[in-house]
Amino acid sequence: KVAIKGIERELICPACKELFTHPLILPCQHNVCHKCVKEILFAFEDSFADGGSESSNQSSPRIRITASSMDRIDRINRSGRKRNSLTPRSTLFPCPSCQRDIDLGERGINGLFRNFTLETIVERYRQAARAAIAIMCDFCKPPPQESTKSCMDCSASYCNECFKIHHPWGTVKAQHEYVGPTTNFRPKILMCPEHEMERVNMYCEICRRPVCHLCKLGGGHANHRVTTMSTAYKTLKEKLSKDIEYLISKESQVKAHITQLDLLLKETECNSERAKQEASQSFEKLYHVLEEKKSAALRAIETSKNIRLEKLQTQVEEYQGLLENNGLVGYAQEVLKETDPSCFVQTAKQLHVRIQKATESLKSFRPAAETTFEDFVVDTAKQEDILGDLSFHSNGLEIPEINEEQCRMYNKALISWECPEKTDSADIYVLEYHKLNKEEESVTWQKTEVCGKSKVLSDLDDDSSYAFRVRGYKGSICSPWSREVIMHTPPAPVFSFLFDDKCGYNNEHLQLNPRRTSVESRAGFPLLLGSERLQVGCYTTLDYIIGDTGIAKGKHFWAFSVEAYSYLVKVGVVPSNKIQKLFHNTHDVTSPRYEQDSGHDSGSEDAFFDSSQPCTLVTLGMKKFFIPATPAAPKDPASRILPLPSCLGICLDCDRGRVGFYDAGHMKCLYECEVDCSGLMYPAFALMGGAAVHLEEAVTAKYREYHDDI
């Protein structure tokens, strides 16, 4: 018999922190109250409706959505919300136990089983906790009597008299199953949540859940390995019994571990007190140093003040002597009264010199001392920075390094880092970043705390450069800052679109992936059969495909990658009024010459080709980027050929009528030209031979975690 009082922790819902009420089993095998599941999903729906504002997070008094849970809203928003998607919508649920996004399938909550076993254990716990509170009869006239039985078929409690009345001998109700007084009534037969009229009679070993025969015949478990319910019951019960027996047999070992942990708790308390004392002593030393510096600075200021006051006071007295009947002037007036020439000359000579000096000082007045104390201003900026970084440094904590290859700058910024030894020694990381601005003298770092090794930032300005650095923390100990990494944001807001599979799409030559984010050209047999008729040269048309969304105004940026094996790819923009001409143009590319009988490459063909194009495109292929031949371009053909970047970007400025082609990895412009933006502008791509283009995927919250899971 299990001791009920020792298992409280297993009976608490991870969402509401209360005893389970109608718990549901998630696909990850964790349990959550039925009401909590609905409230969490409703809270996320409210967050979508309010744009993820913080004011919408408190929509339920029962559930509080944490900041880490709110970071997963983008991923849930991405599920089942793509344009023109024909796939059924699935529901992602953030499990509060394992912190993972769990796919609940098309049926959502309705596809989850109630955990009746856990519900029964919770009810037994409740009964043990409220043994003094009796369960009253549901059918007695007031006042009701204490119940003695509960009927599992009727889902009601009875006293002895009422039970006899409602379950008379010789009737069907007399065969009902009854137990002791309880408020937990569960169905006798477990029904399938997907096929509500079918009882579960099999167990899916892949999904680890009970299923019915319809699920196996044509449902979501058709190709899964299943076993009978009795076999699964026997197998799982044997495994669970063995595991429990093993744990019980190791009771002495568990007690030894508990004793060891108790000692570690006490040791931790002692060590923490010792660390506090050492830290206090360190800060006391700093206080003493600062007090000494403060006293010295104040003494120096006081000494300088006294000297200056003395000089100014002396100067005041000298000028007061220049007043009539005062000081020097009064003395001179008395000397003038002397009538004896010899005595007068003897005294007047020295007095005249003093009068002349006083006259000169009066003409060029200058204070004897400065009143400002600018020389005594204490510059503590560097010391403040040092004190701001003051922490417990440890040689054992590795310095993280920002991995520039895994970082991305697109609609948002993904900053990723790792430790040199590939170990996760830090508990938490602090990422700091600031915008590079030559006009600003002081740098203000923005700070964010991260539990993992990557962070998605969404508050960066377009067409700007940012510096990033990161450090790790383990408790109060931190590592030094990593090397600063400078990254550039796109020159304009990111424009999202998919490849259009309707307008002019040639499914014989081009192949789209289901999400319409990648296109691949398939030369195949039609090209071979077409070339069989040719004897001289080879005339081949490009296969075009455009984006499914147009641009009417503003400045926009989008990025994509071209497979290294691609023979020929053209990328750019096309106006809506020239799309039909684009798909019906039969003279896109000719090789080796545009005219078979020209006999030379004079360049006139290039001029004809450029002028005949209905759209603005640049050529890529064979791992090269070809700058178009324009009057402003270098005359040497070799200087117009650049290495093909791993990721390319296009920036269309409809207001200025210009389009630029970028190395999206470094946000560096490779080529820019004018373009007519009088109508709607569409992204355009052309492929020939073996080639493939992949649109850059938008960065969302938990981007790295999502791709690692895949």
Automatic annotation (TrEMBL):
GO terms for biological process: acrosome reaction; spindle organization. Keywords: Coiled coil, Cytoplasm, Cytoskeleton, Ligase, Metal-binding, Microtubule, Repeat, Transferase, Ubl conjugation pathway, Zinc, Zinc-finger. Residues 396-492 form the Fibronectin type-III domain. Residues 187-229 form the B box-type domain. Residues 336-393 form the COS domain. Signal peptide: none annotated. It holds the Pfam family COS. GO terms for cellular component: acrosomal vesicle; microtubule. PROSITE patterns: B302_SPRY, COS, FN3, ZF_BBOX, ZF_RING_1. It is found in: Cytoplasm, Cytoskeleton. Belongs to the TRIM/RBCC family. This is TRI36 ligase. It comes from Leucopsar rothschildi (Bali myna). The lineage of its organism: Eukaryota, Metazoa, Chordata, Craniata, Vertebrata. The gene is Trim36.
